[in-house]
Every structure is written in structure tokens, then in C-alpha cells.
Amino acid sequence: MPSQACDMMNHSFQPNCFFHWRFKDRMLEVMINAGQRIRKGDEMTVDYMAGQKNDFFMQRYGFSSPVNPWDVIHFTGDAKIHLDTFLSVFNISGLPGEYYHNTGRVSNDGDSLERKAVKELQEECHQMLAEFPTTSDEDQRILDSMRECRRTLEAAIKYRLHRKLLIEKVIQALDIYQDRILF
């Protein structure tokens, strides 16, 4: 563990090497992961947990990165929505003006495939939130009530809170999309 703690500033979600202990001569080796190439001057990033991804280790200890895959919501279902249509509802795509949503509603018998996909994505978000042991409000109350605590505990609670807030924002965005969509 000491060698891992020393190298945590050099973490990556796609490590290119790992530590290996040679029992016969009591030597700690740094070995390159299969399929990786490291050239002179390249940064070496360590895989800390055999059989598991670094995501778990870094999530547990509160480390983050701008390319953090945990900042993305992975949906498991087959539901898909049309990206340009979704973006046009928020006026953030590069489509011509006539393609943006109109504020009027179109009467429709039943839900379109797009609306059904939105509902499926929202349901999956609600299921993700239900898997957490606490709500975002409870996490915020815990953080507000803790005067002095370990930084790792605070980081873990903040991470969990921010993950929930991200999922809640996705649900809100899908609500807005569903209200403004024309089909």
C-alpha cells in the first residue's frame, strides 16, 4: 500500500503498468500492462488493483480527473433519443433556426417512440437514484452537520452527493425535453 499511496498523484483510469512483488528475491517490480507501450519520457500510471479497475479505488478515496468516466451516466437499456432534437429544445445546437422547437404543443394520440424513450431513460435514472443508501438532501444534511471529519469521509459523501445531483439534472433535462418535444 505505501507504494500506491506515493503514486496517487500519477493516477489514471487507463493505467499502463502495475506493481508486482517477486517473492524469491523480495523485489518490487513495475511491469507494463499487456498491449501497452511506454516510450522514453512517457508518463507511467499504475493499476492499483489486480482484477479491478482503478475507478473503484479512486472513487473510494475521493480522487477525480477531468476524464473521469464516473462523471458519465451509462444507461443499460436500449432507449435512445435523437441528439439534435434534444439539443434544439435547449437552443444549444448548431441547427438552423427553423429546426428549433416551437413553444406550441401538437396534439398526439399516445406517446411517440421518442417520448417512450425519454420515459425509459428517466425510469432508469430513478432506479439509479434508488440504489443509493441516501438521498441528495440527506447527504447535504450530513455534510452540513459534520463539523470536523476525515477528509476521505467528506470526499466520499461529496462524491456521492454530486453523482446524485448529476442524475437529478438529467431527469430535469429529460422532463423539459418531453414537455417541449413536438413528436
From TrEMBL:
Keyword tRNA-binding listed: no
Segments forming domain Rubisco LSMT substrate-binding: 111-164
InterPro entries: Rubisco_LSMT_subst-bd, Rubisco_LSMT_subst-bd_sf, SET_dom, SET_dom_sf, SETD3_SETD6_MTase
Residue span(s) of domain SET: 7-48
GO molecular function, one term: protein-lysine N-methyltransferase activity
GO CC annotation: chloroplast thylakoid; plastid-encoded plastid RNA polymerase complex
Domain of life: Eukaryota
Keyword Methyltransferase: yes
GO biological process: chloroplast organization; methylation; plastid transcription; thylakoid membrane organization
Keywords: Methyltransferase, S-adenosyl-L-methionine, Transferase
Pfam families: Rubis-subs-bind, SET
Gene3D superfamilies linked: Rubisco LSMT, substrate-binding domain, SET domain
The protein's name: SET domain-containing protein
